[in-house]
Amino acid sequence: MQITASDLRQLSHDILAAHGFSPEHQHSITDTLVTAQIDECHSHGVWRLLGIIDTLKHGKIDATASPVITQEQGAIISIDAKLGAATTALALGLPKLIDKAKHSGIALLAINHCVHFSALWVEVEQLTRAGLIAINMTPSHAWVAPSGSREPLLGTNPIGFGFPRRNPDEPYVFDFATSATARGEIQLHDRNGTPLPEGVAIDANGQPTTDPKAAMAGAMLTFGGHKGSAIATMVELLAGIAIGDMTSQESMAFAEGTPTLPYGGEIIIAIDPAMLLGADTDSLYTRGDAYLNQFNAAGARLPSQRRFKARQHNTTQGFIELDDSLYQDLQALLQAGL
Amino acid sequence: MQITASDLRQLSHDILAAHGFSPEHQHSITDTLVTAQIDECHSHGVWRLLGIIDTLKHGKIDATASPVITQEQGAIISIDAKLGAATTALALGLPKLIDKAKHSGIALLAINHCVHFSALWVEVEQLTRAGLIAINMTPSHAWVAPSGSREPLLGTNPIGFGFPRRNPDEPYVFDFATSATARGEIQLHDRNGTPLPEGVAIDANGQPTTDPKAAMAGAMLTFGGHKGSAIATMVELLAGIAIGDMTSQESMAFAEGTPTLPYGGEIIIAIDPAMLLGADTDSLYTRGDAYLNQFNAAGARLPSQRRFKARQHNTTQGFIELDDSLYQDLQALLQAGL
């Protein structure tokens, strides 16, 4: 079916309101999910409403939590989401992060105690629009074994990065899991009865497997062998231990066996290139664009290009294609809350 | 042969002095190379003196350059190495970076116009000893093709990361090239007439190759497919474009076909966990150590452990094993400069 972004926003607001989410949660969650839907980033689109409501039913998200600034010192801001959505804490924190980065040249925003279900590129792109470079990361649930072991000590631990370009709608942005594949991919292969690609999972004995059921009983692997494993560990240390928040193991324990969304922290580092480059600030765009344009010329795909194309297409045509069954699920979710 | 660290330091000082390096260069270069040698990190040990002197002969390093602070604003410090060694600029900048990070919670040091030949973990460990978390990176020479292309638009672009642990001699530290293998590995296979591992290089037509000569005529690949490629690109953008310094392509052009060391920038970000954790600062060690000890228990090798073992061994025994032929090369290098 086809739906306008504004109708989809209304539906998302209505669903969240019907289930008791506060206006600030309705707004921040809807904004983030519909932004992803417009970009055809389906895994982080309005489909997530199902998981959010399920998490609410299990008591693992607070629908009316108001985030609180717990620290604002030097170039650091810490926000306690108080078991609310990361998106609501980000709505409070990002403008402050931008101010601090422009004042100090670099700044760090730590979000604590948030339920996380959103794509990292959403806040990264808000920062590149403000002319900043951004890096962010968050742990998840412990499904991934570090290189050389079969113990799931790591989450899928995504990392995002954004670098402004002259066209503010097409920054250099990546956002990917540090696991070799997404958790959802394994579940999808299980549902479809298809084998996994090689090299993404091990079984409970630590042996490589392409069987999705064996993989779910065992562990996923990181991308890039021991190097990817080291980067995934960095995410646990920086966005977990260093900000006094949960590791992916602890988030999994907090879920108490329920299929709820990850709970814990996120960090976002923002850098102001204007302070680094001074009078040469425009070289960020002239040199950056010239450098990155060579990637396109050489046939190397820059990350996020498919998303930018989808965004442009959907914005121009004025509606989004939505899976019929997803729309029905969302309507049922709305009815269930009324 | 066996040599004490202090004799090896003296030899390195003498070689650098004989070739006209300033006292501050003698000191910083020797410190860094001997630190690596003690850790049996041979690729970044005193062997590098050969490349440094070669670079000097080609006029691509200034042996008497004094680094200058060009900016110190907010949480940012920029230092112009003026075609001197990165190590000399770091000796000037690291104490300032530590001060700024402790003052603001996060700070960034940009080194510009430096000749780079040292391991990134050296400065990372200086920062973890000061109780800070650190991330650093530097472009190199453009030998590596981004995922999906055969054009060498990327350097081997190493990334370092350090996180303090209770035992200050064994922080969590990684430092690796974002290429699938080191440039030196390919040269070694060429010298030995052995094939490369699969998946590390392509030939001039963009086809996978295990022939070292074909790889040198073609390009190296990044680790971790498109994800590793995106991270390697981030290094060019952050430690090249964003600080007004060379990309790996530009560094290669600057070398003008000579086999000289990479020239350009490095960035180091330092974060003070004490400001993030406040009264809970000790949790960095209690929780961090408990988390990381699980890796050892599960059979996953933590990065840098081999180095730490070598350091302890060599420090206890009071001497370092040095290859006879390397020692002779170093003696010849000394004589050539006198």
From TrEMBL, chains A, B:
This protein is called what? Ldh family oxidoreductase
The answer on whether this UniProt entry bears the keyword Ribonucleoprotein reads no
User: Per the record's keyword annotation, is Oxidoreductase included, yes or no?
Assistant: yes
Pfam families (UniProt xref): Ldh_2
- Highest rank taxon of the organism: Bacteria
Keyword terms, alphabetized: Oxidoreductase
Family, as annotated: Belongs to the LDH2/MDH2 oxidoreductase family.
Q: Which InterPro entries match?
A: Mal/L-sulf/L-lact_DH-like_ah, Mal/L-sulf/L-lact_DH-like_NADP, Mal/L-sulfo/L-lacto_DH-like_sf, Malate/L-lactate_DH-like
